[in-house]
């Protein structure tokens, strides 16, 4: 068996790579967003065995790989002399072939349904026929909501300030994942899951409306035209939705700036952003007591 003595820097590098690999295995979309990974790089890192990662860390030496570095995957793919010896002792597990196309199409179908999508939305995102979708959902005892999906972006322009703010949050998350080479369906699902996760109250944006935003942002999924663009506010620096063709650094129409102005004087806006509860005074006193005794003994 090959024994390797690792320095503190190498141990930190090993921890980083193993954490990234395990995060990708649990939730690829979220991991790519957290670490700024492209999807092909994430798949490559997920395919490495622990022995291969150990070999990479040993060969990189005492160069830190944090935060992670921009050239991380250049280093990971470079020829490593020690990797051959280690893999001969501990051969990596074989990479399983990709799931069949039918199974790969079922996953977004079921996830769309779990997120509250209507039948027409599921059909467009998954590429399955309605009969196939209903058969899958029936087997899983899942019933999609009735009614028509939004077909025009007019609902956004007629929405409240809070509606437009949350829509901009989702759109920014979606665009970021698209920039990391995720396909539209994966970016839509990942962005909506993340958006729901950061909402303290019930999300104002339904999955069907999030789908409508995404398709009119990119001009995909039967959208007749691109109706939205993401622009950066010149005042606060936030990305927000605007009509297609708006100036890249538009000012004066930012929902986040308007929200900050209205927050102190609008109780409805304040209720949408609950203040975290204050700490229990008894608990705070208990924590401060040891410090007080320490200072008293010194005096």
From TrEMBL:
GO terms for molecular function: DNA binding; metal ion binding. SUPFAM superfamilies: FlhC-like (SSF160930). One of its GO terms (biological process) is positive regulation of DNA-templated transcription. Keywords: Activator, Cytoplasm, DNA-binding, Metal-binding, Transcription, Transcription regulation, Zinc. It comes from the Eukaryota. This is Uncharacterized protein. It comes from Gibberella intermedia.
């Amino acid at each position: 068996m090959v024994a390797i003595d690792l320095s503190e820097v190498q141990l930190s590098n090993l921890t980083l790579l193993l954490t990234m690999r395990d995060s990708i295995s649990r939730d690829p979309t979220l991991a790519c967003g957290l670490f700024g990974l492209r999807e092909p790089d994430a798949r490559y890192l997920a395919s490495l065995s622990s022995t291969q990662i150990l070999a990479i860390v040993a060969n990189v030496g005492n160069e830190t790989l944090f935060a992670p570095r921009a050239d991380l995957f250049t280093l990971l793919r470079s020829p490593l002399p020690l990797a051959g010896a280690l893999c001969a002792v501990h051969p990596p597990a074989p990479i399983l072939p990709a799931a069949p196309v039918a199974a790969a199409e079922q996953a977004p179908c079921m996830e769309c349904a779990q997120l509250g999508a209507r039948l027409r939305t599921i059909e467009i995102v998954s590429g399955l026929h309605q009969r196939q979708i209903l058969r899958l959902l029936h087997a899983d005892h899942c019933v999609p909501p009735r009614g028509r999906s939004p077909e025009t972006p007019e609902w956004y322009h007629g929405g409240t300030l809070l509606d437009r703010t949350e829509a901009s949050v989702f759109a920014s998350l979606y665009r970021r994942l698209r920039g990391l080479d995720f396909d539209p369906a994966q970016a839509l699902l990942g962005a909506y899951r993340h958006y729901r996760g950061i909402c303290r109250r019930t999300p104002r944006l339904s999955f069907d409306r999030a789908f409508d935003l995404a398709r009119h942002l990119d001009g995909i999924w039967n959208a007749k035209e691109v109706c939205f663009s993401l622009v950066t506010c010149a005042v606060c620096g936030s990305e927000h939705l605007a009509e297609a063709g708006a100036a890249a650094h538009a000012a004066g129409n930012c929902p986040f700036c308007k929200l900050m102005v209205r927050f102190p004087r609008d109780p409805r806006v304040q209720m949408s952003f609950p203040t975290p509860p204050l700490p229990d005074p008894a608990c705070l006193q208990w924590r401060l007591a040891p410090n007080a005794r320490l200072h008293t003994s010194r005096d």
